[in-house]
Amino acid sequence: MVRRGTTPAPLVDGPKPKHAQLREILRRLAEQELSPGSPIPSERDLAERYGVSRITVRAAIGQLVAEGLLTRAQGRGTFTASRRLDGQLYLESFTDDMRRRGLAPTTDVLAGVEEEPTASAAAALGLTAGEAAYRLLRLRRADGIPIAVERGYYNPQVVPELLRHDLTGSLYTLIADTYGVQLDHGRQTVWAEIADPETAKLLAVRVGSPLLVFRRVASAAGRPVEDMTSWYRGDLYQVTMQLDRDVPGSGPFFAQGGTR
């Protein structure tokens, strides 16, 4: 364990190689002693403290960076990563979810237009060829930090003139309060992607960073209302699912709900 004012004993080869020993020391430091965003000792400092080479230090740190426990900032050093928000798969607004965690949610509406949707979205919303839908592009933040980019469509037959309203809060609350429509069912698919240049810029991450992607079609009383795809930062968000034996739909690929 790294403590100020102490000189740790040099690491020696044993059942575990030195880089694996150092990795576990740094893991305990990041998980138990340091708060998120704290710097860890420099490579040179770690090499001197534990009597190992800089190559060994880089190997240990590199594995924890790959796991998402540490993060490198060019020219600044290595830091403990921010803790991931743990999403449960059920129908709850992003706004309510963040407030429940004690975080301040905000939304940037980047685009809101009425246009003919993609064939896939039209089919999901039950629209015929040529019918328009409301397309939204929104950036969701928690305590000012960008968490997710949302791109998708809403059914104008269920939520007419949606674009005239304030879309910076919870759409689920807006739809319920304004239209008397309570979203009660959703079918969601989850997969992983890397950030393209546009999404990376919006989320303030590097191009190629890992993202969790959710595509959800939500309905109310059997009428499809929403076909939305959300790209969440993989370094700040994770999903917990309950898996029950012999219960259809309880697996990781399809689940009801999500966060909005």
Describe this structure in words.
The chain is of the alpha+beta class. The protein has two domains: 18-80, Winged helix-like DNA-binding domain superfamily/Winged helix DNA-binding domain (Arc Repressor Mutant, subunit A, Orthogonal Bundle); 85-259, Chorismate lyase, CATH 3.40.1410. Helix content is 26%, strand content 33%. The chain is built from seven helices and 13 strands. It has a seven-stranded antiparallel beta sheet with strand order 5-6-7-10-9-8-12. Strands 1-2 form a two-stranded antiparallel sheet. The two termini are 41 Å apart.
The outline comes out as elongated
Assembly status: single chain
Structural class: alpha+beta
Question: Which superfamily, in CATH terms, is the homologous superfamily of the largest domain?
Answer: Chorismate lyase-like
Order of helices and strands: HHHEEEEHEHEEHEHEEEEE
Number of strands: 13
CATH class value of the largest domain: Alpha Beta
Given as residue ranges, the uncertain stretches (5+ residues, pLDDT < 50) are: 1-5, 86-90, 250-260
Number of domains: 2
Q: Determine the CATH topology of the largest domain.
A: Chorismate lyase
Q: How helical, in percent, are the residues?
A: 25-40%
What is the distance, rounded to the nearest whole angstrom, between the alpha carbons of the first and last residues? 41 Å
CATH architecture of the largest domain: 3-Layer(aba) Sandwich
Q: What's the alpha carbon Rg, rounded to whole Å? A: 23 Å
Q: What's the rounded overall pLDDT mean?
A: 83
Count of separate DSSP helical elements: 7
Adjacency order of strands in the biggest sheet: 5-6-7-10-9-8-12
